[in-house]
Write a structure and sequence with these properties.
Layout: E1 21-30, E2 39-43, E3 46-48, E4 52-61, E5 65-73, H1 78-93, H2 103-117, E6 123-124, E7 126-132, E8 135-141, E9 145-150, E10 153-156, H3 163-169, H4 175-180, E11 205-209, E12 216-221, H5 223-226, H6 231-238, H7 246-257, E13 262-270
Antiparallel strand pairs: 1-4, 1-13, 2-3, 2-5, 5-6, 5-7, 7-8, 8-11, 9-10, 9-12, 12-13
Amino acid sequence: MLKGPPKGGRIIGKGMRANAMDLKVYCAMDVGPRDNQEDCILVQGQTIQDRRIEESRNFKADTFEILAICDGMGGLAAGERASRYVCDRLGGLGAADRPPEDIRAALDKIQLSMEHDFQDECGTTVAGLIAGPAGHLVFNLGDSRVYKVTGGKIERRSLDHSIVQVLLDEGKITEREAFEHPYRNLITAGMGPAFAYKWNTDTIHLQVESQASEPVVYLICSDGVCDVLTDREIMDVLGDNPVSNGPVLLEQVKAVFMKDNTSFIIAEIIP
């Protein structure tokens, strides 16, 4: 089981021993109708930001692995710089022998650096998974999402920080109305100077995932996926072989309507 409370986000404590994990990963990104690619992907310690990519990777992680997606916002190239900045620094955490003792503190440090280095109106979402042999930790700010895909079911493990999520929580709209709401892209939290006035580490959503004895699959995506397809539609596409069906998911988003930068990671973690 994971050690440490969700509040601190501690996932592997000092002195703990853990076995290696095998990971099967498919990642994709497409600029869509936009001029700039403001999404950014972190996988296997590498920051990826391109107009179009599709990659499959099979590798072993001896300690832990950070997988993340950031969706930037801001004028000119500010959004793409902000998303890459966060992925780069999360990747730097992965260069250590063990994960950060407190992911909240790590994200807070990144936020303070962004407030110093970036213009006022830029920012980014972040959604990610710290996978460890002793268990996993989901974290997010904004409306990029993390799903758990097991046993023919899809479960949202992240929490949208958005106006629409507030309306949902208050019971004022249904899930279907939320999916079609005109304000579904207005987010209430993120990283960067645009969110400095409301920055609070307690806003960071953490979801502790216990160690699984069987392989488990996670989907991490920008809203270019979940604004186009419902959770049920995503599950129908991924089926029983989510990693293998990654290219099908990308084609389905294109077939429905690619209206934004679209990026996702599908990762099967094999203990």
